[in-house]
Amino acid sequence: MALRRTWQRWGPGAGIAAVGLGLIVVAAVALPLLWPWNATATDFAATMRGPSWTHPMGTDGVGRDVLARFAAGARISLLIGLVAVTIGSLAGMVVGVTAGLLRGWVDEVLMRIMDVLMAFPALLLAMAVTVGLGTGLRSATVGVTLSVVPWVARVARAETLRITALPLIEASRAIGLPRLDLVRKHVLPHLLPLLIIQATSAYGSVVLAVAALGFLGLGAQVPTPEWGAMITEGMEPALAGAWWVALFPGLGMLTLVVCTNVLSDRIRDLMDPRGALAGRRSRG
Amino acid sequence: MTAPLTAGRRPALTAPLLEVDRLTKVFTTGSRRSGEPVRAVDDVSFDVARGEIFGLLGESGSGKSTLARCLLRLIAPTSGSVRFDGVDVLDLPEAAMRKLRARMQILFQDPYSSLDPRMTVREIVGEPLTAHTATSRRDREQRADDLLTLVGLDPTAGRRRPHAFSGGQRQRIALARALILDPDLVVLDEPVSALDVSVQAQIINLLRETRRRLSLTYVVVLHDLAIARYLCDRVAVMQRGRFVEIGAAADVLESPRHPYTRQLLDALPGRGRREALHGRAPGVAGPIADARGELREVVPDRWVRE
Amino acid sequence: MRNVRIRPLLAATLAMTALVAAACGSGSTPASDGTGDGGGDREGPLVVNILGAPTTLDPAAACGVNDMHLADNLYARLVDYATLPGPAEGTTTFDPSSFEPSLAKSWEISDDGLVYTFTLPDGLTFPSGEPLDAAAVKYSLDRTQAMGLCGNRYLNDQFVDPPLISSIEAVEPTVLRITLRQPNQNFLQALAQPAAAVVDPQVIEANGGIVEGAANEYFANHSAGATGPFVLEEYEPGRSATLVANPDFYGDPPASERIEVNFITDTSTMLLQARNGTADVTVGISKAAARSLEEDPCCTVVPFSSALALDIALNWEFEPFANPLVREALTYAFPYEDMLASVGHGYGEPFYGPLAPDMPGFNPDLSEQRPYDPDRARQLLEDSGVTLPLQFELSIPAGQEELAEFATAVQSVLAEIDVAVTIREIPPAERAAILDSGAYDAIVIAGGPAMVDAGYFLAYDMSCESPANITGICVPEADENWALARQTLDETERQGHWDAVMQAWVAASPKLKFWSIPAMVVIDESMTSVHYAIHPNFYSWK
User: Does the beta carbon of B128 lie under 8 angstroms from any beta carbon of chain A?
Assistant: First the structure.
């Protein structure tokens, strides 16, 4: 019964998306433990083999199992997405809330910095970071994390301004609630749903940006089984007929991004941050 | 007290609970270049005795809500002084001010947006205790339940969230929160104007009742002169940030001396134009009477701007 | 507010990705309208796709092989490589150890090997009408030396201080005499290089003349005179060049009237255009792509022998690699044949020694590849006393999939003998600086000398003293024999020195060698004649 209600609330699109995402998560978590092949072990006797029972996704130019690499790549994409979105959102929230609460020059300085960050596409930002930190997954992660910050900061600031203008904040001030308590008990809880929506909708683009960096050779380095880098590795073999090396990570990427976007849209609809306060005119 | 009192204040035998002296609040609105400064509260002085209900009357935009917030330093006044029980409120450091807030509470106009929708009623009512005392959760809940009973709600209401309640009930919850710290002064900012007429009387009676039982002092912001007549001991009529008339509620509202007060009374529902419905301050018909001149004590304790 | 979305970010990301993809595609798509994919008489120009773009067209400034893509077609040289039959029908290749007259009709070498006297044909002129005589050749060679850039190293066979060439005299308009400081068995090849190209003194003087020790920026993108079989009709740096037959050329006109050369950096584009017939000849295609074209009726894949090899230079400054046992251990760790068949796609020949199989002087008996013996490798590592696991960083040029794949294979193979390799991709722009400063533990080098000569090659790949030695290897006994071999004109005696070099080198296991790398050329079925030379020469192509 509860299941059926949940299904109705979320709708079939989100259901399919959840299944797709679930499959990738399962592949990322369970496969490396269960699958006999390893993502980096080479086998010179079995290079560029097409999909078969032993290698369902085939092997690449040095005889590595593409399925094992696919799973390891899923792990990397999911994890980096999670890290970048979490850290980026938290940092954005701190910046946005600080700016919204303190106003004045602090607000000005912080938001101008955010504007500058926002002026660069995620990829360019990440490329700039690689100049400083060297190419690699670490700088790619830092870069995309940075790209998440201003978006969240802006929303968090606007929301903080809206919330602090609410009478309930004045009421809390009037009872003499310490400022930190006020933020912790009244501002942050109202921000949270919005931030979750922001974070989930940023997830897809973050994952994509990391893959794009890998594709350009600025992200994951050889022989890290990162999806973007795997697609690059598979480009030429694909032209030569070995379609499986690039196709599977490409499909994985597509599934992951589409599914997270569909889910984040649903989460947005279900967690409308106005929901809680929108009832103010319905005098139940 | 040897210094002559500012116009609007009166000599008292016992020290008043609240002494307001030449309080002024200037807002610079809009962009700093184009916006003209607005004197929302302009050179206002008055005293409120312990146990008194002091009404601030005026149409919307006259500055009465701003004045009410300045009294509690929710808005920082531009100049003047507010003394609460002999303590200069505006001079206090932040920490001391926070402590003082336990003794001066406010009840807002809108009970829908002044309660956090994410908290239970018990948490809302008990929240002031967390800010000022180190009571246990159990004690807090007990106190909250007591207060809910006091304001006429079933203590079981405490487990629910504000959206489960009607406007009148929410205002009771808000009142319970304002009273839980056992304050001396409660500022009531249009306490019933957001409510249906049918529940207004209940709340007004509740306010009178609690004042009596807890020996509270109220400063009430009102635009409904009928309610003011019924509730207040003394009233001040405000126009464009200034007082035009101060005196006992019965005197001022039954024999107004300032033309603006008369205009206000004429606009009262049932006494002329019928546009003053709940939720909105009555508009004054015709050319608005002048607020210039100086406050003079025409009879003892009766000040009129002339 | 409800519509605050991160969509723009996503859109931007997608757009960027598309943009990059588009850039990769369009950047290397030749702007060709007429393509010669019909058999026999082609209608449009002959289209050549070649890997890499020149950074300069000035033959005196040319450094890497990319800079020499056009030089031999645009400029005359005194001598040229002799021609050998190629590995496939309709192909010929160059002979790195035998030279024939080109601009010079003939030459004589004095018995002591110091004086070269060239006879030039009479009555040749530049398009301007000025004589193309011994004085013009002297001007050209002097220019290369005066500029002191890469060309000077080639022309003097790496002997720059003091230079190998002691004097150049235009004795008569048809007689040029070059005197060397010491005998050099490689000097004729030096004269076959772009560095010895004959340029038009008038054109040079009209466009900035010669500045000592400096490049002339004008000639980076312009022809320095029409002396070769082709003239440069159009040149788009980094993208393409159009060559047309030179009406003033002293020899027979070239076999094709017009050749369009596209400089391509993306190997996928190369494969596509080779397969669909957009390109008539593709030079430098990847081994994987070549393998996939082997069965394709579109074209013929021809691996030409070159002196290139795939190796890993071990930095002796990196402590573990200073230990000969460690180096030796690594040489036994690789299943060379299996690796060649998989990551090498089967093109090449395993060997172990200082000289690649195609290098004159190579002795197969002394250059056998080490057997795959992981137990021995482990034993040697243990004997060496090095701390295990041995960790080092293997540098590879960024963006080269073939080498990335190779490095991955190396990594997984060495893991078997408790050697942990981390792969570091270095931007191409930093490669030279990293090699120069020795800021690496080990580095993959896929390549070889621009001049096919052991003496020239080992000057930068082995010699103890040479400042040009980029790998920091020093095997004194090999070094002595290398110096002797360079000056020895007698072939048998010289081979004796080379053998000694090989023996001493192999005994020291100075670096890891894998296999020789042939130059991969894909020829469209419509082509009837293709000649391969170390620097492309389209003279006989049709």
Answer: yes
Query: Which of A168, A178, A284 is nearest residue B113 as measured by Cβ atoms?
Result: A168
Domains of chain B: total = 1
Cα–chain center distance at B243: 15
- A277 and B116 in contact by Cβ < 8 A? no
For testing contact with chain B, the best of A162, A166, A168, A192 (most B CBs within 10 A): A168
Size of interface A-B (CB pairs under 8 A): 73
Give the list of residues 6+ apart from residue A114 with CB closer than 8 angstroms, or none.
A95, A149, A150, A153, A154
Give yes or no: residues C266 and C316 share one domain.
no
Dig out the tokens for C235 from the structure. Answer: 């040149």
Residue B105's domain comprises: 48-77+94-305
| Chain C nearest-CA residue for A194 | C2
Task: Give the span between the Cα atoms of B121 and B148, in whole angstroms.
Answer: 9
CA A114 – CA A207 distance, rounded (Å): 21
Which ipTM was obtained for this model?
0.76
CATH number of the domain at B223, please: 3.40.50.300
Query: C259 and C311 share a domain?
Result: no
DSSP category for residue A186: I
Is pTM beyond 0.80 here?
Answer: no
Count of A-C CB contacts under 8 Å? 124
Beta strands (DSSP E) in chain B are 18-28, 37-48, 53-57, 79-84, 87-88, 104-107, 185-189, 217-222, 234-239, 242-248, 295-299, 302-305
List the pLDDT tens digit at each of the 542 positions of chain C: 333 333 333 333 333 333 333 333 333 333 333 343 434 467 789 999 999 999 999 999 998 889 999 999 999 999 999 999 999 989 999 999 999 999 999 999 999 999 999 999 998 999 888 999 999 999 999 999 999 999 999 999 988 889 999 999 999 999 999 999 999 999 999 999 999 999 999 999 999 999 998 899 999 999 998 899 999 999 999 999 999 999 989 899 999 999 999 999 888 889 999 998 999 999 999 898 898 898 888 899 999 988 899 999 999 889 999 999 999 999 999 999 999 998 899 999 999 999 999 999 999 999 999 999 999 999 999 999 988 899 999 999 888 888 988 999 999 999 999 999 999 888 877 888 888 888 899 999 988 888 999 999 998 888 887 777 777 788 999 999 999 999 998 999 999 999 999 999 999 999 999 999 999 999 999 999 999 999 999 999 99
Query: CA–CA separation, C367 vs C425, rounded Å?
Result: 30
Chain A interface, best mutation among C2, C9, C421, by max A CB count within 10 A = C9
Among chain A residues, the shortest Cα distance to B116 is held by A168
Domain span holding position C459: 305-518
